[in-house]
From TrEMBL:
Gene Ontology MF annotations: ATP binding; cyclic 2,3-diphosphoglycerate synthetase activity; ligase activity
Official protein name in the record: Cyclic 2,3-diphosphoglycerate synthetase
Localization: Cytoplasm
Gene source species: Methanobrevibacter filiformis
Native organism taxonomy: Archaea, Methanobacteriati, Methanobacteriota, Methanomada group, Methanobacteria
Signal sequence, start to end: none
Its job: Catalyzes the formation of cyclic 2,3-diphosphoglycerate (cDPG) by formation of an intramolecular phosphoanhydride bond at the expense of ATP.
């Protein structure tokens, strides 16, 4: 027998009471709807009384008022959802009480409780979360693309593996395989020639799971996804199958890696949230930035240096995070390249997705720390035509192509370099805290893994 959807309605005093009551009665007449409570969220223009009991009597339903008529009662909305075990929130308010920013804030609160938020011409649904993984797990998600998720995932995987937790990574990407693909990064040697063979077979050999396998040397499972909703849900993915494969393998801890701003649709014990300091503040503070921030047990801010972000902007992002999620640990970081092979004494052409403004810093880091001579650098690894131009410009001067395993790293950078007789060395990116006032990254990750294991054991 189908049960009724318990609904909490949001109303305001900018509507005449008889009009609001007519709308409530219309909803309540629907066979599948049971309105359990009304939350008054502000506006007094057409409100004759602010007495909750009088309002409840007139409406024929429990009506709850916030303490301050000039403030949207976000906490009260959350409280009523929990108190009445609501299945959906229906918004019958309007401008001027609610604007776009306030509605997104309400949406973030409602979706974080796992129910839909609906209005006359919109509906935001909670994340799809398959309860399928049978091992302790965490997910790594981000607020956008090109903010270093795979780099942090690879780093985290190495740290977790080094400490004996036997992890595997399940990654989803726009270019992932039709069926989840296992790459035994802990067993096979992933050379440039090997990746070229995969590319020649039609495999996207620079997909995130190949990068994870190469950088972390752990078992990885590659999945695909298409589409990304405003809250992070995807239209299509085979990650559930990937999670089931992780259940069947010998790994003891599973890391699920997001794609762009899309969130892995798998229920996990803990979450790492990445925020790019290069992103507009409005996208972090508003829309569904707060929703993603709320999910984080550990929040890592990446690219915290000029020209991507000023120190003042980094501090502002930290304040936003602390306001939205007071319990999360926050670490502000930069990335620095780490070659996976020996490049000392060699002339290097470096291919990266880092922006032009950081080129000099990266060149100096490579030359100072790896005793090489960088003869050229291209930041166009994700733009094939411009990448090709840069390679043609510098390739005759180089002994080594040093490249991140991103985008066109295999089918352009690796292919052209091998054809020209150059050695190809792949490059990792290491997250480093901007100063020693922040928690240690490695220690923070291991603490989170231990917490995930405790959470898993308590549940099972």
């Amino acid at each position: 027998m189908k049960t009724l959807d318990k609904m909490v309605c949001l109303v305001d005093g900018e509507h005449y009471l008889p009009v609001t009551k007519a709308a409530i009665d219309t909803l309540n007449s629907l066979e599948h709807i049971d309105i359990v409570a009304i939350v008054f969220i502000g506006g007094t223009e057409k409100l004759r009384t602010d007495d909750p009991d009088s309002y409840s009597k007139m409406m024929g339903l429990p009506v709850h008022f916030g303490k301050d008529e000039n403030e949207i009662p976000y906490s009260l909305i959350e409280e009523m959802i929990k108190q009445y075990d609501a299945d959906i929130v229906m918004d019958l308010s309007d401008e001027p009480v609610l604007d776009y920013t306030k509605r997104f804030k309400i949406a973030s609160k409602v979706l974080s409780l796992g129910i839909p938020y609906k209005g006359p011409d919109f509906q935001f649904d909670p994340l799809t979360l398959y309860e399928v993984v049978r091992k302790p797990s965490l997910k790594i998600l981000g607020t956008g693309k090109r903010i270093g998720k795979t780099a942090v995932s690879s780093f985290a995987s190495r740290i977790i593996d080094k400490n004996g937790y036997e992890p595997c990574v399940v990654a989803m990407g726009r270019g992932g395989p039709a069926e989840p693909e296992i790459v035994h990064g802990n067993q096979i040697e992933i050379t440039p020639e090997f990746l070229m063979e995969q590319s020649d077979k039609g495999v996207h050999a620079a997909s995130d799971h190949w990068e994870d396998a190469l950088m972390s040397r752990v078992l990885t499972i590659g999945c695909r996804r298409c589409g990304g909703g405003m809250g992070g849900d995807v239209f299509m993915t085979n990650m559930k199958k990937g999670a089931e494969l992780a259940n069947e393998n010998d790994c003891k801890f599973v890391i699920f890696e997001g794609s762009g701003a899309a969130i892995p649709p798998i229920k996990t014990n803990k979450h790492i949230v990445l925020i790019g300091a290069n992103q507009p503040l409005i996208n972090i503070e508003n829309f569904f930035g707060p929703f993603r921030i709320q999910l984080g047990d550990l929040v890592i801010i990446t690219m915290c240096e000029e020209p991507m972000a000023s120190p003042e902007k980094v501090k502002e992002i930290e304040k936003i995070i602390a306001k939205v999620n007071s319990t999360a640990s926050i670490i502000s970081t930069i990335f620095r390249p780490k070659p996976l092979g020996d490049i000392s004494g060699k002339n290097v052409l470096f291919a990266t997705t880092a922006p032009d403004g950081i080129k000099e810093v990266l060149v100096n880091h490579l030359q100072d720390n790896y005793n090489c001579n960088v003869v050229g650098i291209t930041s166009h690894l994700s733009n094939r035509p411009l990448l090709q131009e840069d390679i043609n410009k510098y390739i005759d001067k180089a002994d080594v192509m040093l490249t991140e395993l991103k985008a066109a790293a295999v089918d352009v950078a690796t292919k052209d370099s091998l054809d020209a007789g150059l050695e190809v060395v792949y490059c990792d990116n290491i997250p480093i805290a901007i100063d020693d006032t922040y928690p240690d990254i490695s220690e923070s990750i291991i603490n989170l893994v231990d917490a995930a294991i405790d959470d898993f054991n308590n549940f099972y």
